[in-house]
Amino acid sequence: MGFPLPTTHKALKVPEVMEALGLSRFKVYDLIRTKQLPSFTIGRSRRIPADALQTFMQDKLREAA
Predict the structure, then answer these.
(1) DSSP H/E element including 47
(2) 26, 17 in Cβ contact below 8 A?
(3) Within 13 Å, how many C-alpha atoms sit on residue 48's CB side?
(4) Which residues contact 17 (CB under 8 A, 6 or more apart)?
(5) Which positions ≥6 away from 53 have C-beta within 8 Å?
(6) Where does 22-49 have alpha helices with state H?
(7) Per-residue model confidence as pLDDT tens digits over 17-58
(8) Is the distance from CB of 9 to CB of 1 less than 8 angstroms?
(9) Which of 28 and 65 is assigned the larger pLDDT?
């Protein structure tokens, strides 16, 4: 039971990014830590801009080509 990448959200939660990329929580935080995936925090909540996730995926597709 997955959920699709929300189109109405501007900033995604880590579980949403995990589902969209099919990655573990550890790997998503590793991408954030190594600055491959931009993010920001509000209080204790980490958010990833939806456009940053799109850019990340497009970059990975170009690398694979």
Answers:
(1) strand 45-49
(2) no
(3) 26
(4) 23, 28, 37, 48, 53
(5) 5, 12, 17, 20, 21, 37
(6) 25-33
(7) 999 999 999 999 999 999 999 999 999 999 999 999 999 999
(8) no
(9) 28
